[in-house]
Recover the amino acids of this structure.
């Protein structure tokens, strides 16, 4: 009678080493893929988060500016918009906040109070906000008449690791309100981007971003900054009823 014998032969050393090498290769590919997905998610999250805040500040300025310029005013009364940050002289907010100061009221007030700018469970600010303004005149495509256009540029910088910084541009067309001013007994109005150092208005130049120079965040926005001494954007803009 023929007996069947089981083959007790196992893997050879070469086969084991080859299997381990293949497993390591696959593991490396999976680890690299996971790292890439994680990095991509982080970048997308930061991009979306910064875009949301930039939109809030941009639209907040537009709505406040248009609301005030359409309202009533007194001779030489003015309103000034700027970003107030913790640590700034006279700052009363705990996160970067868009403020408007009414010369008649005297005390600046928040246009809106941004939420979730701080890291969860801490008082540390995650994002730093910079806003700059520029006044231009652009012709109307249909009538050819020139209209005042306010350009604004908002920088959103990751304050924690300074690896992310984004720039967002916007503009607002200023309606003609000379008739409204005349009806209120005022001759006109004036829109001024403040450029004198005494006003505390900062130029959109590299020196204003000195705290992040040499970082990846700075490299990401460096091409959008004005050259030293040749700035056309500044951090404060003022609207005034003249007499």
């Amino acid at each position: 009678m023929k007996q069947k014998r089981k083959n007790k032969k196992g893997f050879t050393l070469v086969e084991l080493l080859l299997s381990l090498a293949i497993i390591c290769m696959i593991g490396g590919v999976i680890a690299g893929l996971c790292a890439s997905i994680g990095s991509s998610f982080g970048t997308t999250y930061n991009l979306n988060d910064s875009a949301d805040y930039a939109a809030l500040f941009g639209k907040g300025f537009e709505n406040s500016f248009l609301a005030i310029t359409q309202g009533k005013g007194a001779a030489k009364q003015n309103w000034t918009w700027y970003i107030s940050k913790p640590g700034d002289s006279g700052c009363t907010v705990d996160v970067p906040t868009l403020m408007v100061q009414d010369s008649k009221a005297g005390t600046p007030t928040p246009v809106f109070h941004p939420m979730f700018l701080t890291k969860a469970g801490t008082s540390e600010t995650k994002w730093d906000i910079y806003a700059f303004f520029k006044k231009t005149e652009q012709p109307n495509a249909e009538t050819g008449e020139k209209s005042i256009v306010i350009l604004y540029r908002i920088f959103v910088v990751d304050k924690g690791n300074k690896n992310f910084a984004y720039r967002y541009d916007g503009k607002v067309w200023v309606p003609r309100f000379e008739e409204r001013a005349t009806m209120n007994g005022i001759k006109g109005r004036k829109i001024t981007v403040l450029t004198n150092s005494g006003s505390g208005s900062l130029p959109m130049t590299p020196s204003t971003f000195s705290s992040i120079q040499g970082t990846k965040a700075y490299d990401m926005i460096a091409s959008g900054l004005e050259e030293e001494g040749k700035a056309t954007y500044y951090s404060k803009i003022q609207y005034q009823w003249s007499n």
